[in-house]
Amino acid sequence: MEQKNLDTYRAGMMHTALAYFLWGILPVYWKWIDYVAAEEILAHRVFWSFLFMIGMIQMNRQWPQLIEVCKRMLKKPILFVSLILSSILISINWFLYIWAVNHGHILETSLGYYINPLISVLLGMIFLKERLNKWQYASFALAAAGVLFMTFHYGKFPYVALILALSFGFYGLTKKVTKLNASIGLTLETMMVMPVAFIYLLSIANNGTSSFFDWNAGTNTFLIGAGIVTAVPLLLFAKGAQHIPLFMVGILQYIAPTITLLLGVLIYKESFTGVEIITFSLIWSALVLFSFSHVRGIKVTEKKKTMEI
Questions:
Q1: Residue 303: its pLDDT value, please?
Q2: What residues contact residue 73 under an 8 Å CB cut-off, 6+ apart?
Q3: pLDDT surpassing 80 at residue 3
Q4: How far is CA 185 from the centre of its chain?
Q5: Per-residue DSSP letter, 244
Q6: Whether the predicted pLDDT of 253 surpasses 90
């Protein structure tokens, strides 16, 4: 590998790994303001993310690209509908994640993001007619066994984990339709739901239940900062992922749920009994099989391309 390509590869690895690291430690941020209602945190997250991204659009002089996408939305209703769906799905995901973290379900959020890659592949098979190999089918069986084991022993389904995985999986599916870069996509997604967030913030300010208008400097700093902690990892990921192979992105994505798992067990002392150990072991085994089949598939494809050349 040439030095220039090697430097680009290393930079891509660094940016992508940093993005997943920041996503992994995000529960700490929400825990600092766990006395604020999850719906208010979500509204601030949407509102300040939108303002932050408008600033980024201005700084990067991306107004022509943003206007072009808006024109495309007028000509292609499917793009407009996809953006609305992606906005709703990511809002559901953000809300549930904040609620779960601040109500003692950090381990379940970790489980959800471990399951997410498998859900994404399953959705690809259902909606995009993508084929699965025997190893991927085996990984689904192991993951399902883990979920059923937890359900059987606790008598309750891990709804938080599965809704997080499904909402983010369907969000990824809508992104395949829109095919927008990260900054334009996030700007439009937050723009779609920003009016709802703004009306909600006005209503709680009016009835005197807004934490923001208690004028606590620390609280307000964290609520405003919610926009930054939302946008920065996404922009880092967009910058890094385009310079490294897809299989490496797939491996690095496990950084976030692993950090979240460790935070839940070691810092916030959530229960991690034999049931959780068996459940996570089955999920981890599923991911090992999934990663093996993914890397193997990429190598076979590359070998075929080499032979054709």
A1: 54
A2: 79, 80, 83
A3: no
A4: 14
A5: S
A6: no
Measured N-to-C along each axis, helices 38-59 and 217-241 cross at an angle, to the nearest 10 degrees, of: 50
pLDDT at 299: 53
- pLDDT at 254 (0 to 100): 86
Helices 134-154 and 274-308 pack at an angle, to 10 degrees, of 170
- Domain borders along the chain are 3-308
Residue 282's Cα: distance from chain center in Å?
22
- In a 13 Å sphere around the CA of 17, the CA atoms on its Cβ side amount to 8
Residue type, 12: G
Structure-token match 């509102």, residue found: 47
Instruction: Please identify which residue in the block is written with the tokens 């839940």.
Output: 264
Q: Which 8-state DSSP code applies to residue 243?
A: T
Give burial (CB, 10 Å; 0-12/13-18/19+) of 108.
buried
For 5-32, the pLDDT digits (tens) are: 777 888 888 999 999 999 999 999 999 9
What is the residue-wise DSSP string for 18-80?
HHHHHHHTHHHHHHHTTTS-HHHHHHHHHHHHHHHHHHHHHHTT-HHHHHHHHHHHHH-HHHH
